[in-house]
Structures are given as structure tokens and as C-alpha cells.
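hey so i finally got around to running the thing on that chain from the lab meeting. sorry it took forever, my laptop kept dying and i had to restart like 3 times. anyway pasting the input first so we r on the same page abt which one it is
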Amino acid sequence: MNTTIAYLKNLRETFMEAFVKLETKGRFERKPWNYSGGKGGGEMAVLRGEVFEKAAVNFSKVEGDKFPGSDAKGPFMATGVSLITHMQNPKAPTAHFNLRYIETPDKKWFGGGFDLTPMGFPFIEDTKHFHAIAKKVLDPFGKNIYETFSRQAKEYFTIKHYGVERGVGGIFFDHYNTGNLEEDFKMWSSVGNHFLEAIIPIYQKRIVEPYSEADRETQLKQRGRYVEFNLIYDRGTKFGLESGGNPEAILCSLPPLVSW
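ok and heres what got predicted. didnt touch it at all, straight out
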């Protein structure tokens, strides 16, 4: 477990450093919090600038006496890193990333993934690049694992009341335990190690694209669907709130401006 926590903390710092290099103004503001439902807590880190209208890269490690939801029972430990970006330029998509590890008295599992959500301006070359990196990450761990995780992302990130995907997909997995935790950790950490390779080249192209006020209005309306998904369907939001997590940290995935 100590190796897992150290990995997550180091990965988080790597993400933050990469985002600051793209940002022309602003730095991450860190805010620690204590877990009211048991032991532990976490730290929010939020960047508001001219490139990233809002980016949040959060870490948490909490322990409680009662697992929230129906996946398990009894005491639990949960740790993870979650990331969200909301870009100033409408041509630059929103990106989401999460890695988590959970232990209960009789279960251990890994979860996570990353996905891409264009805010009204999908570029096919960006989608191809994003998925190509995801496939490259997962192919060493099984010839069908990318297809499985990609399908799971498509299913998970569907906004059911509209019958459409939130974005252009990615990879998603949960309750992952093959019986070989060492190999599972390698796959899980490989997802984390390659996320920047999937998103940074896209941002380097799109943050300099020209855009109009009409483009901005399209972006804000598209963000509305993102908000709907996160508040109605997102498992991480539900888990965090039901387990007594910090609401500010949990809901910082929401964009700073949105319209319907």
C-alpha cells in the first residue's frame, strides 16, 4: 500500500508540473482537508489561469468503518488521484483522469482510466491520438484489454437521459483484480504514466487556435452536459459524498462557467 500511495503522490506532482508549463498565468493553489468520516484526508490543487480556465489535480487517502454503497461491506481504505481540466479555448477539449485503489477486509481492487470530452469541437485526429496512446498503454497487458476498457468507458460515460456519450471515449475500469496484484499495479501505473502523452500534444495544438464568441457559447452549453453527468451518474461523486468526503474537493470537477 505504501508503494501505491507514494506512486500516486509523485504522479500528481508530475501532472501539475506539466500543466504549469503550458499555463501563461497562474499557479496551483493547494488546500488540504481532513476526512470527517474517519481517518485521513487529502489535498485539493486548483489552477485558474489564461490557458486552463480551471484545472484540478486532487489526492486523497481515507479510511472508514463502513464502506459506502453495495460494492463491499465493513471497514475500507480508499486512495486515489483525480484530475479534471476545463480550458479557456473552446477548441481545446476537457480531459478527465482518475486512478484509485481500494481495500476492504476481504477485497482489494484497482480502478481508473482517462477520457476526452470536446466542448463542441471534436477533431478526429485528436480522438485517434488519444485512443492510440490508450491502446499502446494496455496492449502489453493483454490483446483484448484495450477493447474491454474502451467499451466500458463508452458504456460508463453515456448520458442516459440523452442517449449519447459524454465525449469521444477513452478507457475505464473498476474492481480490477486478476489475482496478481503486482501485475495489476503495473497495468494501473502504466495508465498513469502515459496520460500526459495522450493529452499534452492535443493541448499544444488547440490552445493557440483562434475562436469566436459564438464558439465560446457553444463550449459553455456543452459543459452543461458535463455537469449533468457528474452530478447524476458519476460514481466517484457518489462515493465521495456518501463516504463523508470533502464536498469542495469532490465537486471541483465542475466547470467555473456553464450555460444551458
